[in-house]
């Protein structure tokens, strides 16, 4: 419910397959399984990667490198149920490495989790279970911009990637408590700045900061 439908409704049998099974089938080598894996995850990974850089060529290269590595080393990749965290972390690392090569980024402090400027629904807007007016959407986006990069990224991974705090901690290279703090502080700031937002999002939202 929290995650927007980012896949074409005309899903084929591969797309409907359980992700763990799809990963296993990909590791066994069939090219069609690999193509299904790419199709299944490409858009959400591209959306996540696009929050770090507006250089479409850099992002495209990192995406290609990620999937090329998967195909090349598929026989050595272990079976795991943590597929989405594995892919998110791998792409994040590749983008960071490329940005350090081509820009002045020297560490996590310069690795900014930015806001998208397209008309596509943002990850944070996926928090909203009902349609917001243009004014409400603009107000929410303005509040989100006041959060730290880490808070916005944690919220993205929690509500768009549907990851656990433990999985987010692995991606961000922090401990689980730090993730809980990021989510709690970010959501608390939204609540303090706009108390009635809870009636639009749902009171259960704040509980996610501790799971």
TrEMBL record:
Residues 139-190 form the RNA polymerase sigma factor 70 region 4 type domain. GO terms for biological process: DNA-templated transcription initiation. InterPro entries: RNA_pol_sigma-70-like (IPR039425), RNA_pol_sigma-70_dom (IPR014284), RNA_pol_sigma70_r4_t2 (IPR013249), RNA_pol_sigma_r2 (IPR013325), RNA_pol_sigma_r3/r4-like (IPR013324), WH-like_DNA-bd_sf (IPR036388). Pfam families: Sigma70_r4_2. Keywords: Sigma factor, Transcription, Transcription regulation. GO terms for molecular function: DNA binding; sigma factor activity. Belongs to the sigma-70 factor family. ECF subfamily. This is Sigma-70 family RNA polymerase sigma factor.
